[in-house]
Design brief:
The termini are far apart. α5 packs across α6, α8 packs across α16 and α12 crosses α17. By secondary structure, the protein is α/β, with parallel strands linked by helices. It folds into five domains: 104 residues, Ubiquitin-like (UB roll) (Roll), CATH 3.10.20.30; 94 residues, Ubiquitin-like (UB roll); 137 residues, Domain of unknown function (DUF4445) (Nucleotidyltransferase, domain 5); 153 residues, 2-Layer Sandwich (Nucleotidyltransferase, domain 5); 109 residues, no CATH class. It is 29% helix and 23% strand. A hairpin with a 3-residue loop joins β14 and β15. The strands form eight sheets. The chain has a six-stranded mixed β-sheet with strand order 16-15-14-17-19-18, sandwiched between helices. Strands 30-29-20-21-22-31 form a six-stranded mixed β-sheet, sandwiched between helices. A five-stranded mixed β-sheet has the order 2-1-7-3-6, covered by helices on one side. It has 18 helices and 31 strands. Bound molecules: FE2/S2 (inorganic) cluster. The site of FE2/S2 (inorganic) cluster (FES) has 15 residues, from loops. The site of FE2/S2 (inorganic) cluster has 15 residues, from loops.
Length: 652
């Protein structure tokens, strides 16, 4: 008679196996993704499966209740001690008796996908660089003079097929008592290595370690440092937190920090120390928030722009401040936490994504990893708006990248009433076509400013200023309603028909809100503010336009706005302003914090690291500073929306 048929769901993989084959063995042979940390010893319970019973018409199979063996002692003991959910079995203990359909629940799959949170739509396949392995090590004896580490390595080889496993000195220092305490059974966390490094033991626990190990995805920005703490086994984000980058005291933007290092002996070292301290404070905070021991953080991935990259590493960013903007290295880096003075597990691995060029950093690489322009059939323009805009343009054929110095105006800086996005900041604006007076919404309040009770609602915060998304809408609305002409001049009250316009020195300004009766500020948009926004948006647009020239196209198929800021910009207003090229509005999407997502992908999936390194090698870098056409595009793009480029879709 034929061997019993085993069908796994959801994969649909199937095969025949002799009676008595453990389900875990069958799964391994068929390449079914079924987890195991203890190697089939009935300890870890990662191998749980659910056998079906009854008719499976789709497979033409009737499955009987005794298709798998009855519970053995190991399984019964596990159930008694820790409890198995109804219908669940341990795949390493249950053996095949008759034809059977076996479901592998998501939590028993190694390469399961985690759905990204909220606005984040894509899944990440979990395949981390550091994993846990339970092993049983041969005891030493007088006839076999090998060392404990050698026998541990043999066990890893025999039981897990791990070759050439290395161990740091601290592992050697801890290992002997741990092996004896665990009665020669231990769990080790192993960093799996890659083409450059052997697998390496990171940590060792006596017996079966039932806990979790963690990783950090860190987005090191010039203004803020944000980190996600992830469970490396499930991929789940356990906690997220952010702090201001303490380097702010050395200069708001990148170039002022580069000049600080040029002007001050030891300036770069001071900034390196500041950012590392800030990072450690953040890690402590996140550890407390998640209520975990920081020494269980064994892996970390960093994304950042080139200047932050160098300062984090303790490399003077001097060369990045002058042509030809040479990076110390553009390759991805694999380091240890103690190389960077980070207070997490002492030998935690740190991975820095590759930089694309002297002005286009690992943050842009992370955006590429998250948004995959190189897999796109249509031509996609991705802009990550910050003090520097990183711009990617491409499709399957090729991908181009550049960065463009937008300055901090989009973050509300250098705008007379500008401020960061915080409660009290104006974030939405509409101008009435008849009266030419503004109405607006502030962060933290659901009402429009012209609704009854608005002032009572905002009594707590008041109206304190205009944030980046607010100023974009403001300027675009002013242009739409004729308060502003194409070159960017605010007209007189007579020309504009708006009572909100008033003479302000040699130019006109626009009154948005007079908070003085309530003790707040008077919020206005001056012609200088308009000028700042024109410069910022012209920098962004001309970078994109230059890449389009290089690609040989006049238009793009779709636009992705990345960055926290991108999520808040109104597409329509961005286009009225001429920040982005003319595309149908439904072809403009927001990717949220794509750089942070890219960091998380690289943390949770080791293959993604090789993938992005390969992708970055193929990205063509365009240096805006040496392209004469950039200046030309910049001048044209200073007009709103543009002096020469048509915006036909906008008009319609
Ligand atoms: Fe660990 Fe089955 S593999 S309990």
């Amino acid at each position: 008679t034929e061997n019993p048929l085993v069908i796994f769901t959801p994969s649909g993989k199937r095969g025949r196996f002799p009676v008595g084959t453990p389900v875990l063995t069958a799964a391994r042979q068929l390449g079914v993704d079924l987890d195991s940390v203890c190697g089939g010893r009935g300890i870890c319970s990662k191998c749980q499966i659910t056998p079906g019973v009854g008719d499976f018409a789709k497979h033409g199979l009737h499955v009987e209740a005794d298709a798998l063996s009855a519970w053995n002692k190991v399984e019964a003991r596990y159930d008694e001690k820790r409890g198995l959910k109804a219908g669940r079995r341990l795949g390493c203990q249950a053996t095949v008796q008759k034809d059977v359909v076996i479901d592998v629940p998501a939590e028993s799959q190694v390469h399961r996908q985690v759905v990204r949170k909220r606005a984040e739509l894509r899944d990440i396949v979990i395949n981390p660089s550091t994993k846990l392995y339970y092993v049983e090590v041969k005891e030493p004896d007088m006839h076999d003079p090998s060392g404990d580490l050698e026998r541990l390595r043999d066990a890893l080889h025999d039981q897990w097929e791990l070759e050439n496993v290395a161990a740091d000195l601290h592992i050697l220092q801890e290992m002997q008592p741990v092996l004896r305490k665990g009665d020669w059974k231990v769990t080790v966390a192993i960093h799996l290595g890659d083409h450059e490094n052997n697998p390496r033991i990171m940590h060792i626990w006596p017996g079966f370690y039932d806990g979790t190990i963690y990783g950090l995805a860190v987005d090191l920005g010039s203004t803020t440092i944000a980190a996600h703490l992830c469970d490396l086994q499930t991929g789940e984000v356990i906690a997220s937190s952010g702090v201001m980058n303490p380097q702010i005291r050395f200069g708001e933007d990148l170039m002022s920090r580069v000049s600080y290092s040029m002007m001050n002996a030891g300036g770069a070292a001071e900034m390196t120390q500041a950012v590392r301290e800030g990072m450690n404070a953040l890690f402590t905070q996140i550890g407390i928030e998640a209520n975990i021991d920081k020494s269980l953080i064994v892996d970390a991935v960093f994304v950042c722009n080139p200047v932050m990259h160098h300062l984090l590493l303790g490399i003077d960013p001097f060369e990045l401040g002058q042509a030809p903007f040479a990076l110390a290295t553009s390759n991805a880096l694999r380091l240890r936490a103690d190389d960077l003075d980070l207070n997490i597990h002492e030998s935690a691995r740190v991975y820095l994504l590759p930089c694309i060029a002297g002005h286009v950093g690992a943050d842009a690489a992370a955006v590429a990893l998250s948004e995959h322009p190189n897999h796109s059939d249509d031509l996609v323009l991705i802009v990550d708006v910050g003090t520097n805009a990183e711009i990617l343009l491409g499709n399957r054929e090729k991908v181009l990248a550049c960065s463009s110095p937008t300055g901090p105006a989009f973050e509300g800086a250098q705008i007379s009433s500008g401020q960061r996005a915080a409660p009290g900041a104006i974030e939405r604006v509409e101008i009435d076509p008849a009266t030419k007076l503004p109405r607006f919404k502030v962060i933290g309040c659901d009402m429009w400013s012209d609704e009854d009770g608005f002032e009572a609602m905002i009594a707590q915060t008041g109206v304190t200023g205009i944030c980046g998304s607010g100023i974009i809408e403001m300027v675009a609305e002013m242009r739409i309603h004729g308060i502003l002409d194409a070159p960017g001049l605010i007209g007189s009250p007579e020309q504009t028909g708006s009572a909100a316009v008033f003479a302000d020195g040699r130019t006109y300004s626009y009154l948005v809100y007079d908070g003085t009766p309530l003790g707040g500020p008077k919020i206005t948009v001056t012609n200088r503010d308009i000028r700042e926004i024109q410069m910022a948006k012209a920098a962004l647009y001309s970078g994109a336009r230059l890449l389009m020239d290089k690609f040989g196209v006049e238009k793009v198929d779709r636009v992705v706005l990345a960055g926290a800021f991108g999520a808040h910009i109104s597409n329509k207003h961005a286009m009225v302003l001429g920040m982005i090229p003319d595309v149908p509005l439904d072809k403009v999407t927001s990717a949220g914090n794509a750089a942070g997502t890219g960091a998380r992908i690289a943390l949770l999936n080791r293959e993604a690291r090789a993938e992005i390194e390969e992708t970055v090698r193929q990205i063509h870098k365009v240096e805006t500073a040496i392209e004469p056409r950039f200046q030309e595009h910049f001048v044209n793009a200073s007009a709103i929306p543009n002096a020469v480029d048509p915006f036909p879709l906008l008009r319609s």
